[in-house]
Amino acid sequence: MQRLLIIPILFILSSTASWANETLKRVPNFWVVSSEKDPTLKNGKAVFEFEILNEDLKQYADQLSPVQGSCNGKTFDFAMPKNGIYAKEVFEGKYTFQFYMNGYYEIYSDSVEIKQGYRTKVKLRFDYAEQEIIVDKPVIYLYPTTHTEITATVKPKGAFTFTYPVYENGWKGTAHPDGSITIGTKNYPYLFWEASQKFSAADMDLTSGFMVKGDSITAFLEKNLTQMGLNSREMTDFITYWGPKMAGNEKQFVRFMFNEECNQFAELNITPAPAQLFRVYMIWTAVPEGTVMHPQPQALKTVQRDQFYAIEWGGTEVIYNEILVNHE
Questions:
Q1: Structural domains present in the chain
Q2: Taking the C-alpha atoms of 37, 39, 41 and 44 in order, what is their torsion angle to the nearest 10 degrees?
Q3: CA–CA distances in Å: residue 163 to residues 44, 259, 295
Q4: pTM for the complete prediction?
C-alpha cells in the first residue's frame, strides 16, 4: 500500500533533562555561533550571517517560497539560498529576529548585540509544525466467552485509508471465543483498519521507552509482547508486520502507548462492552548512527484474559529529526 509522506516531528527550543545520569538537551532553533571582526566592513556597518541547516530546504531551494524575516519589527524576505547561507547588513546595535516559512513553526530569537565592523554568524533550523502519519495496521481481536452478536465502531482522529472488512458505520457480526468474527457469510480472523492523521511534538514522549538495535528487534518484541500478555497468534501477527520494517535499521527508539493513550489516534467502542479492552500502539523512529539517547525503560501494561475481553494493536513510524544531542 502506498504510504503518505511523513515529515519530521517538532521539538521546540532548548531545554534540559537528566536521563540515566547523563544530561541531554534539545536542539535549539536559533543560536549564535561566532562574532568576529571583519575588516571588509566599513562606515559603521555590521553583518548577521544566517546559516539554515535544513538539508531538505536547501535541496529544493529553487522551488520554495521566500523566507519571511523580521528584524526589530521591520520585515524582509529572501530566497532560500542553495548553500543555506544568507547575510544581512545592519548598523551596530541590538537586534531581535523572527523567521517564518509556510508549513513550519516560526523561529524567534533573543536580543543579539552586534558591534561595528563585526560579522556575527547565526544558525537556524526550521521545524515542521506537524507531520502526516499513517496509523498502521490496527487489528482488533474479540474474545467473548460464547458466540456473541457485537457492534464495533472506530472513530479515527484523521481519515480512514483502508478497512477490512468494509467499514459501514461500524462492523456488525458474531464474535467467537477463538477471536474471529463472522460478518455476513464470511469469517475473519480480526477486524482491520488504517488511517492518516496529523501528529505534533506534544504527542510523543521521549522520556521513557527503549533503544533497540535492528538485529535485536525480534527478541525485543517477543520479550515485551509476552510481558504484555499477547498470545502466540497475536505476537506472530505483530512481529511479522513490524519486524521486517525495523530489522534493517542500525537502531531505533521505541515507545508503547496503552489503552486511553491510544484515543489520540482513534476511539474504539464495542457493544456489548467487553469486561477488558486492552489496546497497545507502538510508536517508533529509526535513529541515525552516533545519536545519543538514554530514555528510562518504560513500564508496560498487561492484558487480563478473563470474561469477555478484546485486544487491539497497531503502531506508526515517525521520521527522526535531531531530537537530542549531548550536552557539552
A1: 30-124 (2.60.40.1120), 131-326 (no CATH)
A2: 70
A3: 67, 21, 35
A4: 0.62
